[in-house]
Design goal:
Layout (H helix, E strand, L loop, with lengths): L3 E7 L1 H4 L1 E2 L4 E2 L6 H9 L3 E7 L17 H11 L5 E5 L13 H17 L9 E5 L11 H6 L3 H19 L2 E4 L16 H18 L1
Parallel strand pairs: 1-4, 1-5, 5-6, 6-7
Antiparallel strand pairs: 2-3
């Protein structure tokens, strides 16, 4: 049986960062693995999360984090694809990138355009844009707050509306993660454990409607 291949392309909240342990959620907890179980044998879910990944910005402190530069080989390595789920934007909010929310939206647009012309699709390109978690202002009182920098929370608050508009403009599917997720105590920017379950359920329903 040819399974439908779903690639989840994102940052630490796709990789499965756990604020409590500062490591990775186990296989039973991560939303990507729960999504695979919910979708069942007809689907193959591929985890492509990387902590610190941006849409298109090169991080001066760490190499290899621009999603734009790695997107093509990642898509091709997992071809043929039926759907790509993109959940990025959180790291673009870092103060050191000096990006406005509109800049972040435009970075995501570059990813959408590149994905569509990459010859990695089984049939037509299908993309699901997911608005990432809105960071809690208590982030600024944690060690992560210094890394994210001033204004990062406020930028994240604007992304759901901007990403919704971009999805509509580009003809992509859209899901806002925020009704289903809660920032974890400890850093207030990553999914808490139960958010993984709620988000996986919402995403599974959305994916079944797409492919």
């Amino acid at each position: 049986m040819n399974k439908k291949h779903v690639l989840c392309f994102g940052d630490s909240n796709t990789w499965g960062y756990c604020a409590q342990t500062q490591g990775r959620y186990d296989d039973a907890t991560r939303w990507t693995r729960q999504l695979s179980g919910l979708l069942g044998e007809e689907y193959l879910v591929v985890e492509e999360g990387l902590s610190g990944r941006t849409t298109c910005f090169e991080d001066p402190l760490s190499e290899g984090l621009s999603g734009l530069h790695l997107l093509t080989p990642i898509l091709l390595s997992h071809a043929p694809l039926d759907l790509v789920v993109m959940m990025l934007g959180t790291n673009d909010c870092k103060q050191r990138f000096s990006a406005t929310p509109d800049n972040i939206k435009d970075g995501l647009l570059r990813l959408v355009k590149k994905a569509r012309v990459t010859e990695a699709w089984r049939e037509e390109p299908r993309l699901l844009i997911v608005a990432p978690i809105i960071m809690d202002r208590r982030l600024y009182d944690t060690p992560h707050g210094a890394g994210m920098g001033k204004g990062s929370v406020e930028k994240s608050e604007q992304l759901p509306a901007l990403f919704r508009g971009l999805a509509l403009e580009c003809g992509c599917a859209f899901l806002d993660s925020n009704p289903y997720v809660t920032p974890a105590p400890g850093d207030f920017m990553h999914f808490d454990p139960d958010s993984n379950r709620r988000f996986a359920q919402a995403l599974a329903e959305k994916i079944r409607a797409i492919c």
